[in-house]
Amino acid sequence: MATINERTGFDLDEVARLLTTTKQVRKRLDLERRVPNEEILECIDLANHAPMGGNLERNKWMIIDDQSSKDHIARRFADVGRPYLQVNSEARGDDRSQRVIDSATFLVDHLADVPALVLALRLDRPEGGSPGQAAGFYGSVLPGVWSFQMAARARGIGSAWTTFHLEHEAEIAELLGIPPTVSQVCLLPVAYYTGDTFTPAPRRPAADVTYLNRWKQPVE
Ligand SMILES: Cc1cc2nc3c(=O)[nH]c(=O)nc-3n(C[C@H](O)[C@H](O)[C@H](O)COP(=O)(O)O)c2cc1C
Predict the structure, then answer these.
(1) Domain 23-209: which topology?
(2) Atom 9 of ligand 1 has which residue's CA nearest to it?
(3) Spacing, Cα 98 to ligand 1 middle (Å)
(4) What is the DSSP string of 51-111?
(5) Is pLDDT of 92 > 80?
(6) What average pLDDT is seen over the chain?
(7) Ligand 1 test: best mutation among 141, 162, 169, 172, most atoms within 8 Å of CB?
(8) I want to staple 114 with a disulfide (CB 3.0 to 4.6 A). Which of 36, 52, 102, 189 is the partner?
């Protein structure tokens, strides 16, 4: 039975399902089926409602489906991702971490085969500044990335938050004609997902991670 919130009309079970089962999808990306740009644009329309400092619309997006560009990005993604994942695989023994590493390794191996790569961008650079300014910079662009992922998930489209290629940001900017004044913040491989059995990951309860009024003071 739906749990409709009386004040808002939202079905809270469905909202919770979207929030807890929007996963980073890698192995279940359908590499054979193209995602129409119209569907990606719908997700971007929704993502652009995320909060932005000063309400300035300084964010841009790029859909990359050109094979030679995807090949180039995939090579740079692997240059960084493969050794990183190798080191982490040796360092961390538990099953959950290993599953993420296996999944991320699959993506390193198949990035060029994913139908579309969606790049989230911001129209300036984070250079210098205080921690508060850095928070404002990334805080104005990253909420939209998460909204994009949820909007996509609701449409049967999977995506994965990735940053490996950013070690080669300048080279990829040149490849794609992105001016040096623009920042790339996240690359989302995007494809329909196969099977819909996503389940919430275990997370510590809110009461364990929330304090009331003073550091370490529990919320009763
Ligand atoms: C800032 C950030 C950077 C990330 N970079 C990568 C990446 O380069 N490659 C990758 O496969 N996953 C990357 N991830 C995904 C994390 O590994 C992911 O959150 C983790 O797998 C949890 O998965 P879940 O959301 O499916 O529970 C990144 C996530 C964040 C938030």
Answers:
(1) NADH Oxidase (3.40.109)
(2) 162
(3) 13
(4) --GGG---EEEEEE--HHHHHHHHHHHHHHHHHHHHHHHHH--SHHHHHHHHHHHHHHHHG
(5) no
(6) 95
(7) 162
(8) 189
Contact assessment for residue 107 and residue 54, using Cβ atoms and an 8 Å cutoff: no
pLDDT > 90: percent of the chain: 89
**Nearest residue by C-alpha to atom 22 in ligand 1:** 24
Q: What ranges do the domains of the chain cover?
A: 23-209
Closest CA to 141 of 75, 24, 57: 57
Closest ligand 1 atom to 107 CA: 11
Give the relative orientation of helices 67-91 and 95-110 as an angle to the nearest 10 degrees: 160
Summarize pLDDT for 195-211 with one digit per residue, the tens: 988 999 999 999 999 99
pTM above 0.70, yes or no: yes
d(CA 185, CA 162): 9
Q: Check residue 89 and give its pLDDT.
A: 84
Atom from ligand 1 closest to the CA of residue 104: 11
User: Which residues, other chains included, contact 50 with Cβ-Cβ below 8 Å and sequence gap of 6+?
Assistant: 143, 144, 146, 147
Expressed in angstroms, the distance from the first to the final Cα of the chain is 30
